[in-house]
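The material for today's practical consists of a large collection of protein records. Backbone structure tokens are a discrete shorthand for how the chain folds in space. An example says more than a description, so a record of this kind follows:
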Amino acid sequence: MKTASGRTAPALRLRGAAVLAALCTTWVWSSPVAAAYPERPIRIIVPFPPGGASDVTARMFAEKFSQVWGVNAVVDNRTGATGIIGTDLVAKAAPDGYTLGLVALSFAINPAIHKLPYNSDRDFTFVTITASNPLILVTSNQFPAKSVKELVDMAKAKPDSLTFASSGTGSSPHMTAELFKLMTGSKMTHVPYKGSTAAHPDLIAGRINLMFDTVIATLPHIRANRLRPLGVTSKARSAEMPDVPAIADTVPGYESTSWGVLMGPAKISAPVVEKLNRESVRILAQADIKERLARLGSVPVGNNPEEARKFIRTELEKWTKTVKAAGITSDK
């Protein structure tokens, strides 16, 4: 059948299909989703001071991203408010993959304690869990207790006489100590600092009795014989310090492991997330990265975005329950 223009209907259908295909091709090639990523510098925001687990891991990623993609990748330390300030910058960044964040356990604790300017679940795109970081219980060399059992006995004999430092109310060192208190029935006084490394001078001098902190942050002091390790917070001993017992050996069921998650603001396009995830997992599988993390007491993870999101949701639920049981508020 011919139309008024003289063309047959099948011919028109073929011509229409060709036009549609051309339009689709033009859209694909001009879409930001399909554009080459990355084309400009990448910023990884770390909401903690330099030297900690998140900072060290983020710098490894920045180095590898720069090498592989040929763009400048930098770490931007934005400290304060138990990681909330830097995390909020990630949440409010453009969802283009050029502003990322690397946060830790406090990310899952903060919602239970503070009124946040972001939603910890909905306002982020989770790329991958980077590493698992057991914490370690350390004291000064002057501290009388030389084991977890001796520490618990001291804390019970003189309630609230012992002090423990943390990197701030609701931080992973703080909540790890609160979990320890709950599970041992001991009472100790919390002394918050602005970042874990800020507490180290007082801890080493004996002005503070003890602290839970990351292996990465405390290992140099332990190796230099400035701090004494009493136990690690993972179920098993640390491969880097096999002579240090797990706290669970004395306190059955005790476990509090920090972690890192590479993430960005919500609504980053799927192709960009996929590329970030693929490269991140590849980086974490590299022998030199495994070795560098192992030396610092971290275990690489590297999972997909959906697995990362499920893990974060589980952690949010776990620490909300712990905060409630401990009666912790932003005022304490």
